[in-house]
Amino acid sequence: MTANFQLLRILPEVILTIAGVLIMLIEPLLGHSTSRKPLGWFAVLSVFASLAASFAQLGMAAGTAYYGVIQTDAFSVFFHVLIALIVLVSLLVTIDTANANTESLGELFALMVFGAVGMMLMTSATELLLVFIGLEISSISTYIMAGFRRKNVKSTESSLKYFLLGSFATAFFLYGIALIFGATGTTDINAIASQLGTSAVPMFATIGLGMILIGLGFKVSAAPFHVWTPDAYEGAPSPVVGLMSTAPKAAAFAVLLRIVYVAFPALHAHWQPLLWLMAAFSMTIGNLGALRQQNVKRMLAYSSIAHAGYLLVAFTALSTDGIAAASFYAMSYAAMNVGIFAVVSHASGYDERLSLISDYRGLAYRSPLLGGALGFFLISLIGIPFTGGFFGKFYVFASALHSGMVWLTIIGLVNSGIAAFYYLRLLASAYSKPTNNALLDPMPRASFALLLALVITISGTLILGIVPGQILAMSHNAAVSLTSGIANPAPSATHQ
Amino acid sequence: MTSTHSLHLWLLPLVPFAGFLVNALLGRRFPRALVTAVALIATLIPFLQVLGIASQFSSLSLPHLEQFGTWIAAGSFHADFTFALDQLTLVMLLVVTGVGFLIHLYSAGYMAHEDGYWRFFAYLNLFMFFMLTLVLAENYLLMFVGWEGVGLASYLLIGFYYTRDSAANAGKKAFVVNRVGDFGFLLAMFLFIAHFGTLSFSSIFSQITAHPELHGGFLTAIALCLVLGATGKSAQIPLYTWLPDAMEGPTPVSALIHAATMVTAGVYMVARTHVLFDRSPLALSTVAIIGTATAFFAATVALVQTDIKRVLAYSTISQLGYMFLACGVAAYSSGVFHLVTHAFFKALLFLAAGSVIHALSGEQDMRVMGGLRKKIPVTFWTMTMAVFAISGLPPLAGFVSKDEILYHAFTAPGPGKLLWFVGLFTAFLTSFYMFRLWYLTFFGENRAEKAAAHAHTPASSHHAEVDEHHHAIHESPWIMLGPLAILAVLSVIGGWMGWPEGLGGGNWFGHFLAPALASQHVAEAGSNSLEVTLALISTLVALAGWFLAHLFYFAKPELPEKLSVSLRAFYNLLLNKYWIDELYGAVVIAPVLFLSRFVLKGLIDTGVINGGSYAAAYTTQGMGAIVQRLQSGNIRSYAGWLALGAAGLLLLTYFGFGAHLSLR
């Protein structure tokens, strides 16, 4: 394989890296009063280019590059596309939200782009150390972005908490890699399975896998590793929350899928019950926690914990249908959650004027567009038919039920019922007549960037809910390409 | 995919849908001419496309399938966006788009002075979208989308004058009654999935064909559920009661939805599913009996109605009964043939009635019409064609198709002769009530002017200007008369394409449909002489009806009065439509209301559900409070929780907890 050809397998990441560096270089050269928004549009274009590069990878045969540390296949492309789309919309929302008070906006764009590079690397890496590097790139940019409103105490607090707890979790992840290396002598995900054999599993590998589950569990904010989420989301700028509640999670879920299904299918008796518990806890704690929240962003933070739980349900199915359902769910959750944060960001502005549910009273009267979009995304989050949220849940629970996960499905359905309550509370608030005159001012005019963001997220949610066929097929291809690695017979599989 | 090239069938429904979107979103601000243009173009394009398809039809390999992706996939079950085209579909497409376009055209004139003009055309285009989806669908689920969609459009259009209570209620009634039928349709779909694992027509029918031993049993169950669905949509006993009330909608709506297209969906569905019905004699007999009974029953009610549109409504129910009768004796192509000719002459009857109503500025009561022959000659002549056609006078369209049905009923095994006799008697009644309408409306003296001179007649309809200035009776504009003329021609010659072989014709229509509707039931071969005899009897019966109507309503107009007095009980029975509405009210609606008010709301809702949900809500809220309290905001405690969770998880891993315990 020629070097050029190998480059194609990391082309999306390369494009974004170059774009990010350019933005960093240009930012200080611009005068104080110069608008940074063109930089944002430049970032948008670079994400488009990277999206195109990802799609181009579909045309190549699935394969590895750079000594087998990178693997592009339908699975990696699926998540590349997902991450690129999330970052794209987040950039648009940032462009829309930023105002004169925003400092060094260019850096924010660059950080988003760099974060995307890390997340994309995570989804195509087949070397645990490269996964770790990707994870760190994405995490560190997210830590900084969370604290981007430097003069805001909550923002700083959010960043610090996220950073400290995140480092704690990363340590688990790293230690897990070390233990796995100790047990199997390799950190290549594709090679671990064959090294493990099937008979006597070294305890180190099992514990190492547990450590990795902890690290990734933290990243996807699955209970009981979710405690950081509400505080971090509350303080971080809203466009950033839209990003960090979806893209890094999608990447972490992709890594989790790859690790458990490619490296440790043999240990499924160990990890499946753990994921079962994490799913059940996440759904329950997320939804119960959201019930009494008055702060919209905290509520959505708990909601994201719950949705991580729904997604984990699909993991327990142990089938390609389950993997496909998880990938599909990641996409539909991203569409509606990034969408709702676009609405929240625009409605409350960079200074976050609206924070409580009661502040949203009359939103639909102040701006029918925002009110309608908010209602639409909430309906999708509840999981009402003809939205992506419905089909996402449907496929997740269908795959779980198919594998006999009756109780987990019941827990999930009860939780979906509870969830409707707090989503509807926000919806009812947005559609009530405002009592307070201050809440009657018309909203700032929606910019082109916001409209574009809403068009992408709304049409995405609708497509996933009405004509999911195409994307379902994509997610299914992704699942098949992932598990075809499992099919490779391990040398020692016929032991005894 | 059998065809080499795509016909872009998706365009057919989507063009009217685009028209709907444009008019619904922007129509309010458009001038009327633009609204009209959008709506007409959005129906003309599909019509032209269908003509194009028809012109190259012989070169297609049928059925022609076009798939536009998967809609739902769950395990092995999947429903796709697939459209299918075969002979039956083409016939339906021609009727829906052709008659649909003519009625759109007519509406531009008829609705010209109405408020909500854009709304009307938006709904009308929406209807076309769903109707075309229904006809093109290749599986029951997609068909159901169209099925429900036309119901929605029908609801919206019946209640078009939503400020009028009667219209709003009529819309609701249509919707609710159709729900009962939809329940049957849904059950049938579930049974299809359970037994065949699919909803695709081709797949289900090939599975049935592949198992010749399948007979009756669950096939009958499915067929009967479908029949229930069909009786709702096609206004048959026992679910016909909504259609007369649906006349509250604007007259073009009655012509398009409640005569020519939507109400025939049930017939179409039965014909489409004929492979299944062929295997279930019981279901077929049910269809035949329902059809015959409805035809007869509705015709008797039509005898005494005084509202011109209600006569036509009962006549529609009666004619749909004939189509059911045809399907019930496995003469599907005859049923579809009657569907087509009926679309011509019944649309024409409604549109002409609309023209009469238009001329009288909103008057619908035939008792105050009369003598309009000279004042609105075009309307009179076109309507005459339709009346002759529906009455079954040769060689008009209605004669050919109705006679074919009666012939098939006569030659059908079992109680065929009885069905034939009732059908024949109904034909007599049909002829009588149609000529009654004809005489009352167009002949005699003009009772409208007399009545207006005497006393102020309360306006029975929507035309607001009735009270203001009683217009001079006027002929309708050309945009309304054009469609009338075209439909009149079709009502005359439309039957010739199916002229029976026994009467020297070629029955081209029947042969055309044969591949799509090939039935396993081979009717007893009747002789030509039998067919000639039956046709002769039908003709005589139709003439008898005409003669009697002539006697009653032209020669001796005092006769009906006398007769109604001497047969008071019977007359009242008919006038009150056998008190079926009242019966349903007492037997179905009152108990349901009682159950809802006292048992469901009082006991279950307030007691069990509210109580239960409050209890559940408080418990959940309480637990929510605990979760919230754990969230102290203190980073050390967070780290503590994290460590605790990690420790727990690692312990579970270490002890191989999963290996011993199944969590399923």
From TrEMBL, chain A:
This is NADH-quinone oxidoreductase subunit N. It is found in: Cell membrane; Endomembrane system; Membrane. One of its GO terms (molecular function) is NADH dehydrogenase (quinone) (non-electrogenic) activity. The keyword Phosphoprotein does not apply. It comes from Acidipila rosea. HAMAP family: NDH1_NuoN_1. NDH-1 is composed of 14 different subunits. Subunits NuoA, H, J, K, L, M, N constitute the membrane sector of the complex. It catalyses: a quinone + NADH + 5 H(+)(in) = a quinol + NAD(+) + 4 H(+)(out). GO terms for biological process: ATP synthesis coupled electron transport. It comes from the Bacteria. NDH-1 shuttles electrons from NADH, via FMN and iron-sulfur (Fe-S) centers, to quinones in the respiratory chain. The immediate electron acceptor for the enzyme in this species is believed to be ubiquinone. Couples the redox reaction to proton translocation (for every two electrons transferred, four hydrogen ions are translocated across the cytoplasmic membrane), and thus conserves the redox energy in a proton gradient. Its main location: membrane. Residues 125-418 form the NADH:quinone oxidoreductase/Mrp antiporter transmembrane domain. Keywords: Cell inner membrane, Cell membrane, Membrane, NAD, Quinone, Translocase, Transmembrane, Transmembrane helix, Transport, Ubiquinone. The chain crosses the membrane at residues 6-26, 38-62, 74-93, 160-183, 203-228, 240-264, 270-288, 300-320, 326-348, 369-392, 404-424, 445-467. GO terms for cellular component: endomembrane system; plasma membrane. Belongs to the complex I subunit 2 family. PANTHER family: NADH DEHYDROGENASE (PTHR22773).
UniProtKB/TrEMBL annotation, chain B:
The keyword Hydrolase does not apply. GO terms for biological process: ATP synthesis coupled electron transport; electron transport coupled proton transport. It is found in: Endomembrane system; Membrane. Keywords: Membrane, Transmembrane, Transmembrane helix. GO terms for cellular component: endomembrane system; membrane. One of its GO terms (molecular function) is NADH dehydrogenase (ubiquinone) activity. Coiled coil: none annotated. Residues 71-121 form the NADH-Ubiquinone oxidoreductase (complex I) chain 5 N-terminal domain. Residues 137-430 form the NADH:quinone oxidoreductase/Mrp antiporter transmembrane domain. It comes from the Bacteria. It is a multi-pass membrane protein. InterPro entries: NADHpl_OxRdtase_5_subgr, ND/Mrp_TM, NU5C-like, Proton_antipo_N. The chain crosses the membrane at residues 6-26, 33-54, 88-108, 120-137, 143-162, 183-208, 214-232, 253-271, 283-304, 311-333, 339-357, 378-398, 418-439, 478-499, 534-555, 583-600, 638-657. The keyword Oxidoreductase does not apply. This is NADH dehydrogenase subunit L.
